[in-house]
Each structure stands twice: as structure tokens, then as C-alpha cells.
Amino acid sequence: MVSCRDMIRAIRACKTAAEERAVVRKECAAIRAAVSENDQDYRHRNLAKLMFIHMLGYPTHFGQMECLKLIASSGFPEKRIGYLGLMLLLDERQEVLMLVTNSLKQDLNHSNQYIVGLALCALGNICSAEMARDLAPEVERLLQNSNPNIRKKAALCSIRIIRKVPDLAENFMKPAGAFLGEKHHGVLITGVQLCMDLCKASSEALEYLRKHTKDLVRVLKNVITSGYTPEYDISGITDPFLQIRVLRLLRILGQGDADASDVMSDILAQVATSTESNKNAGNAILYECVETIMSIEATGGLRVLAINILGRFLSNRDNNIRYVALNMLMKAITVDGQAVQRHRTTILECVKDSDASIRKRALELLFLLVNDSNVKPLTKELIEYLEVCDPEFKGDLSAKICSIVEKFSPDKLWYIDQMLKVLSEAGNFVKDEVWHALIVVISNATDLQGYTVRSLYKAFQTSSNQETLVRVAVWCIGEYGDLLVNNIGELDGEEPLTVTESDAVDVLEAALKRPSFDITTRAMALVALLKLSSRFPPCSKRIKDIIIQQKGSLVLELQQRSIEFSSVIHKHENIKSTLVERMPVLDEAAFVGKRAVSSAATLSSEKSNRKSSSGIPLNLPNGVSKPAAAPLVDLLDLSSDNAPTPSASTGDFLHDLLGVDLMQNSPIQGMSQPTTTGTDVLLDLLSIGTPPVQNNSSPKLPSSPQVKILPQLSPLGVASPKLSNTSGSVKATIQDTKPTSNAPPVIDLLGDLGSNSSMAEENVPEYPSIVGFQSSSLKIMFSFSKQPGQPQVTHVQATFTNLSSNEYTHFIFQAAVPKFVMLRLDPASGNVLPANGGSITQHLTLDNKQHRQKALAMRIRVAYKVDNQDMLEQGQVNNFPPGL
Amino acid sequence: MGIRFILLVNKQGQTRLAQYYEYLTLEERRALEGEIVRKCLARTEQQCSFVEHRTYKVVYRRYASLFFLVGVDNDENELAILEFIHLLVETMDRHFGNVCELDIMFHLEKAHFMLEEMVMNGYIVETNKSNILAPIHLMDKAS
């Protein structure tokens, strides 16, 4: 077998990726063989190879057990490489990791400081929650060790433990406080970092550590005033890393606490004034210091000092310094907006920088600086820059300009002017929303329409390649072509323009025939042509010809329009003029409202979900004491004001019915609560097109006659497969409606939920559904059912609902129960949760061996991905209905 | 957590050292490395050393043919990370004597040992070069 060095040489010599793969495959095969032969001598070397292979991005899972074997060996070099492999090749999600707990425990108690250090390092990098619990006592003990090298690693290890098991935070409070009195820099810097994490983990720790503010100030003072210490010196400054961490901890301690802020203000002033700013290390400290001053309850004088430092940073030639200055000003804007405004011109210059990182920061900052008084000059500058900036920056920049213009425009003329400029420069980069909004504004500004259509005509002559500009122009020429040609509604100072009717048609023809434009634009051009054919009688022959040409279009949409329009022109001359009348003024308020709703849809649905989730057992409208059909009516009439009657056994099928798909109902419930005009809200919601709401809207309309319910419900069943079971049963119920027969429908419905018919007699108790877990992003509902004769077994239907506006993929639900309960999880209905209320269901079976003696409890853990980022949520369910 | 990953990449974009302080699958790592390397290598000397990528901020610095890339949280002090990169390079320099790409390739485990003494779980452990190198020297003497 070749040495590690030779393997690396061979890989380096590879000319192509395929060659490299071949070498790696051969090596991996040899290593696998060695692993299966349990080769002792080369284990160490094989692992070194595997680490290299792993770095190149090839799978190396077969080497994981080798790491464990090396760690368990007695020699230091073997252990060394074993631990390194453990940290690189494994992670806390692998079960193999549990096997290493014992070796770790032994090594933590080893007499050799380096071996203890290795074990601490491994634990600190990859330990899981269980390992953290098991080994926390060892780590606590090592915090008191006499060797500073062990103490510093134990401190960082504690951070990992606290992250994994926050309950353990209080055990580490006192040792962390004691660390602040240390002399060794390594212990100090790790101790300070431990304190920061403790402050985040518990408010109790924060209060405790605030008492140590003086110690921390002393640490900083010692570092600053100590003379030259070669080992910690970086370009003339003693240990900038430690200074920065201390400043950061001071920030956490001083935030919202005037006393602590007071204690630290002298030293902050000293750091801010005496740190050299000609080297990067010094600037790093100043940067941190400024951020601390901005965050704590500092005096005015100190703030002035900080703002001045930022001003100096901003005018620095070094791009790195300017970048952090922009970053910092963003935070300073909430503290002292005026001071930041003073730097407006410099920031504007940064927007035009050649460096994308700086541009992005500056643009975001500038966006926050815009107000009513400076919007005009700033927009002018930005638009001028839009003309010359890199194409890849145009998207970001135009989006920002559009939102500034929309938000602050003092009048419509200015708004239209600016939007036209943006569209002529970056029309290919703006979103549909932007030009939709522009058209709505134009349609409302009756006195500006003539001016607008003429400006658009002019803009088209120069920027006919900007698609959204062309769309707006095409629409306006179609609507207001007569204003264009006859120069109607001329504004003061407007340049006179002579446009003939055929010039206007030229524009439309160009838009229609430009191959790079998409169907929307070309279809809009066809519609506009049809409109002009009645507005410009002299051109109608030409227009007719253009429309007829499109009969041969390969695009179905255009072909169809062309055929329809030419038959309008040919056969329906008498109604054509009414057909192509000018569009009624678009309702601006409704458009703005709809946009606001669509952007707030996530928010409101989240809110209403939360609202209804807390009140679900109460909100269920079911007057169950009435004959069987009545509850159905009530159920479907979700806005009914009937006070809910506590349900008897009959009513529980409604529970189940709702429980199955509660998520989809709840938005309506929630929405109809706050307003009296529930229907309007509903209509608004419908116009956005959120599918789940649409499904449920049908039951809302027929509130009284039950006969109508049937046809309304069937599409419901079709629309959402999940409901199909229940809606089928509902049908059965309605057909069966005899006031006396309460039982059969119950059987029917529950039959779908996995019970048998004998249960009607047995009268199995029913349980209300609960919200098992809720966070800002996710909700889990549990609904329960039991089979007769098996009181200890509970069937749980879990419904997971996505409350955020991002899609969740790779969704996995895990649950753990006490030992006296057996849990079985059936596969979920899917692993993708669409955004805004998308849900999936999963069936659980719980077998409580100590039924009626102990209550159920469950720990849950949910993992999923948002934009490929792993997310993890966990919680405990203690609110199971009693008696399960 | 401050530091989320440390990458050493050469001019051709080949990874020479990778240390992650959070869990990513192999595919995610490859994708991330590819994207970041492409972004950073395209930048010129005059541009600033910070690039925002997804939820990371990447602080990078170039030494001869090697790029040192450090992914950090958004609220991390970028200038301090830049200084940290320099410290890492100086430490390697002191051990290898004018460190180059090949030293790191052929002594990958040693480079990792050094890093281990400097960063743990994304936090800084030690900034004193002698302290960092002490265990490694000891091991060299023993073998």
C-alpha cells in the first residue's frame, strides 16, 4: 500500500476530475480492505489518507469506526490522529458517536494534560446533547484544573455544553465569573467567551456577571497599559483579540443597564482615544469599541467620540475600513439619525464604488436615510447612477429606487417621471409588481395621462429594448392613443410633439414583432391594436392586416387572440366601439390594499392560526344538542355567532372532521373574527388566491338550507384529497338525515378514522384536539381517537402546518415517550410543507401501559430545511387530554 | 458561535484544508465551497476582503497562491477575523518556515492540529504562537 504522501502526489498529478476520482476510488478500496482485515499497523496512516479524501469531498463513512479504535488505543500519536478523524469525519448526528462517550470519559480523567486537552477539544467540537449531559461533571471539574491549557479548553467545552443543554448553564456561572480574575490570556479569552454565552443562555447569569463588570474593566485596563509583550503583540498592540472579546462582553453587560454602562465608560473612552488607528489591529478594536458605545447606555460625549471615529473610518481609503464603517452606521442610525445624515454624500459615493460588497452595504444604508426632505436629490443621484452602473447591480438598485419612489413621492407627476426613468434604464430588471403599480397610478391620474403617454412614446424611441417600459407604453398607447396624437392635456413647459396615428401604430407593431419579447408583451400589443382600430379609423385597415398576420403565429395565445380580434373587426363592427372603450379607472385603494394583504398574508394567517389554535375547542361551532343535521349547518357556517355548546359524543365527529383539516379552516375563523364584514375579507383573500382558503370558502356561503350544502361540499372533497374521506361521510350524513338517528352518521364518520361499527354502543369517550407544539414557524395539532375495547391505545393524527412564508423540505418529525408508553409512527403524508399554511399529516399510535395511572407526555423534535438551511425545533407536549 | 468554517483554497480553486464548525452534508459542503471560491477568486486586490454569501459573511485574504477564507456570523468583527487569518499564517510560518501550499497539503494533520489549538467549536482558544505550537513540537520530538 502506498504512503499518504504518495497518494497525495498521485492526486496532485491528476489532470482531470475523472482521473482524480479513479485514484480516490482505488485508495478507498484499499483502505476498506485494510479496515475489514482489522489491520493495526496502518490504521493511523489510513485515517490520514481518509482525511485528505474527505477534504476533497468524497464519502468516507467507512472510516468512522477506525477513529474510535484509534481513540481507544493507548499511544498518544494514535489518539491524536483518532480524535482529529473523529472531529472531521463524524458529526453529532451519527449514532456511532455515542460509542465514544466512554473513551472520552476516560481521557478526560487522564493524567497527561495533552490527552485531556484532546478529549476536551473533541467534546467541545462535536458533542451531542446526551454526551453533554453525561460528561458535564467532568468538564466542570476540569474548569478548576491547575493547568491553564486545560482550563481554557474546558471553558470552550462548557460553551458547547450550555448550547446543547441550556439547563446546565447555572452550574457554569460561578467558574466563569472566577475566570475573569485570571492572568493567562488563553484562559481570559475563553472565559470571556463563556461569559458571553452564559449571558445569552440565562438572564440569571447575566445579572450575576454584571457584578463582575469591574473585573472586566480591570482586565482591559491591564492589557492596554501593559508594556510590550512579544508573544501577544500584533503591530504594536497587545492582544487585540482579547481586547475585542472583552469589549464585546462589556456590550452585553452594559446593554440596558445604566450602572454597568457607567462603570465601563471611562475605559471605553480610553480605548476610543488612545488606540492607534493606522493598523488593521487597532481599527478592529476601535470598530468593536464604537459598537459597544452605541449599544450601551452611554453619555452624549462618548457617543460623539464614537460617531467621529466612524466619520474617520468612512473617509478612509482602505475599502475594508469603509465597509465596516457602513456596517456600523447602519446600527448607529437608530441611535443618532442626524449624525448619520451628515455623512449622506459620502455614503452616496460608496453606492457608486467599484466593489460590490461596499455598494450593497451603502445602498442598504442609504435606503434607511431617505426621508421626505431629501428624496428628490437622492433619487436623482441614484437614477443617474443607474444609467452607468454594472448590469448585475441594476436589479438591486432599481428595486431600491422603486421602493423609495413609491414610499416618498410627493406628487404623481414626479412619481411617473421617476418611474419612467427607471424603466427606461433598467426595465428588464424590475418586478411585475412595479409596472402594475405604475399603470394603476396612470389610470387614476386623469390630468396626466396625455403627458404620460407622450413621455412613454418618447422613451420608447430610445429604450425600446426594456421590456417592462414597452409594456407600459403599449398599454398606455392602447388606452390613450388619442391623447397622444392630438396633444391633449399638455402640461406647462412640455415639449411639443408631433405624432401621427401611424407612428403610434408603428410602436405597437414593433412591440408585437420583436422576437425577444415574451407572450405577455406581444399579447398586450394585440389588445392595444384592437383598441386603436376604433380610435384611429384611418389606420384601421393597416391594423386589421397586422392582426391577421398573427393568425399564423406559432404561439397559441397570439393565434387565438388574432382570430378572435379579427372576427370582432369583421363581424361585429356595431359593438366594437363599446367593446374597446377605455378601461374604467382602476381602483387604486383596492390595488394597494391587495398588495398589502398579499405581503401581510403570511403575517395575518399566522396570527389567525394562533388565535384559533388557542380557542379551537371553544370555537367549534356545533349546536350538537339539536338534531343531527343542524351541527353540519353550523359547522359549515363558520361565522355563526352561536355560542358553542360543549359537545356530547355526537358532536365529536365534528371535532374529528375539523381536527383532520383544522389548519385549512382556521384562517377563515380567525379572519372573520376581527371584522364584521367577514365576506369582504374573504373575497380579498380569495383574490390573492391562497388555495386552502378557497377550498373552504364554499361552505361559508350557504348558511341555512342544508340541501345546498351537498353540491357545495363535493368540490371541496375533490379540491383537497385529505378532506375527501370526511366529506364523503358528510354526504352520507345528509342523505341519512333523520332527526332520530344520531348514531349512524357517527359510525360513518368515525369509520373513516379507523373505528368499527360496534363502537356506537360502547360509547367510547372522545377527546378534544390539542395544539401539541407551536412556534413562530410551525404548528403541530394532535387529534385523538380510540378503538373500542382498547382503552389504553390512542390513535393520534398529527397535523403539521407551516406558518412561515418559506417552503420546508426534508421534513422529519420524531417523538419520544416515557418508558410506560409504546409509540408507533406511521409514515407521514409527505415531507414537504408548502409556504403559508401548507400542511402534512402523520398517524401515531400510542399504547399507554399504565392507562389511567399515568398521563401521557411526549418530547418532540422536528427537523426540516428552509432554503437548504437545516432547521431544528423541539419541544415537550404535556397538554394531552386527561385519560388517554 | 463566531467562526463557522475555515477554508484554504489555492488559485485554481482546489480545497487544501477545510474545517467546519457546523454540520453540513458532503454535497452542501461541495456546493458551498464552489460558490464561495468562485465569488472570492473573482475579486480584485483593491476590493474589500468581505463577501456576503447566504447567511455567512466570508472574510478572506490571499497569501501567494493560497486563499484563506473564513466564514463567520453576520455580527462578527470582520477586521478581527482578518487579523486572525494573519495570525494563523504566522503560526504556520513559524512551524514550517516560510509556509507554502505543499507544506499544508503534505502535513494536513499538522495544519489541523494547529488550527485545533487556535479555534474550537468556532471560538478562539489561544493567540499566543508559542502556546499554540507547544504540543506539536512536543510530538515532533517524540516521534
UniProtKB/TrEMBL annotation, chain A:
Localization per record: Cytoplasmic vesicle, Clathrin-coated vesicle membrane; Golgi apparatus
Membrane association type: Peripheral membrane protein
Molecular function in Gene Ontology: clathrin adaptor activity
Presence of keyword Flavoprotein: no
GO biological process: one example: intracellular protein transport
Any one of the GO CC terms: AP-1 adaptor complex
Superkingdom as given in the UniProt entry: Eukaryota
UniProt entry keywords in alphabetical sequence: Cytoplasmic vesicle, Golgi apparatus, Membrane, Protein transport, Transport
Any coiled-coil regions, as ranges: none
Keyword NAD tagged: no
A Pfam family: Adaptin_N
Primary subcellular site in the record, as a coarse category: membrane
Domain GAE: 765-881
Family stated for the protein in its record: Belongs to the adaptor complexes large subunit family.
Family annotation (PANTHER family): ADAPTIN, ALPHA/GAMMA/EPSILON
Name used for this protein in its record: AP-1 complex subunit gamma
Lineage: Eukaryota, Viridiplantae, Streptophyta, Embryophyta, Tracheophyta
Automatic annotation (TrEMBL), chain B:
Keyword Membrane recorded: yes
GO biological process, one term: intracellular protein transport
Main localization, broad class: membrane
Domain annotation AP complex mu/sigma subunit: ranges: 3-142
Pfam family, one: Clat_adaptor_s
Gene Ontology cellular component list: AP-4 adaptor complex; trans-Golgi network
Subcellular location: Endomembrane system
The entry's keywords: Membrane, Protein transport, Transport
Domain of life: Eukaryota
InterPro entries assigned to the protein according to its UniProt record, in alphabetical order: AP_complex_ssu, AP_mu_sigma_su, Longin-like_dom_sf
Annotated family: Belongs to the adaptor complexes small subunit family.
The protein's name in its UniProt record: AP complex subunit sigma
Record lineage: Eukaryota, Viridiplantae, Streptophyta, Embryophyta, Tracheophyta
